């Protein structure tokens, strides 16, 4: 546990390092920050912080930079101060603006990703709620030609998925309407998990009809495809523009993880494990994936229950944590009541 004075010196060093990405010396801290102590005291506190593993000196003659442990102490202090009525109101106002600018969920997700990137200068990711755990609000089979139809699925949170379905023989609009009615009966009150495990009212009788079975398979495939495209990412260029990633060997491991949807979904679901509404912060070596040891992940859940989504920001460990935490909170609030 750091004393108030050491916490203040550490916070000043981190603020300076975040702003300039250069090692910070005691003279810089004394001249630019009102620490209320003498230069000699600042030098002494920096030595204590270095001995404790909170900061490090990359070269003998250089200033100091924060370590993962130093960032952790700084972030924990930020989180302990989080909240307050005025801050809640500011976040709510910003979230309301996002909601008003979007006509439907897909627009809101995209605009939330854009806002996160704009506010943080980092990579932003909005992970939509898992389709597997959502109830189906509406299922439509739209006849395009006698041998082709469009499957449209609307989930309870407003996500929309569609898929074309081809028939070996002609199918009338009346037949499609009958199948649509049966499928809506099957999906009523059930999730995709329920359907795949053979649960639900009237399902056995419905499956006996080949056309119903075919349409059901198409609906399930449609939803599985939707599950694979849950992540909406923006800001790769912002991430690459950071000085930490100017060399390809530094950025390639990160890009490999981010390009693998399966790994990315696991990382975000695991990172955003907090259920009390507070963001989770994984700093450098705290990330389970070793490829992410040079970045921090700030993530928070939104929504309710098992189908909750995730908003996240990925950036260098030298990110502006105060700004990022606020941006993630705004994004989660904007999406949280859908």
From TrEMBL:
Domain Heat-inducible transcription repressor HrcA C-terminal: 106-324
Name of the protein in question: Heat-inducible transcription repressor HrcA
Protein's job: Negative regulator of class I heat shock genes (grpE-dnaK-dnaJ and groELS operons). Prevents heat-shock induction of these operons.
Keywords: Repressor, Stress response, Transcription, Transcription regulation
Record Pfam families: HrcA (PF01628)
GO molecular function: DNA binding
Gene3D superfamilies: 3.30.450.40, Heat-inducible transcription repressor hrca homolog, domain 3 (3.30.390.60), Winged helix-like DNA-binding domain superfamily/Winged helix DNA-binding domain (1.10.10.10)
Family: Belongs to the HrcA family.
Highest taxon of the lineage: Bacteria
Coiled-coil residue windows: none
Gene: hrcA
GO term, biological process aspect, one: negative regulation of DNA-templated transcription
Species annotation: Senegalimassilia anaerobia
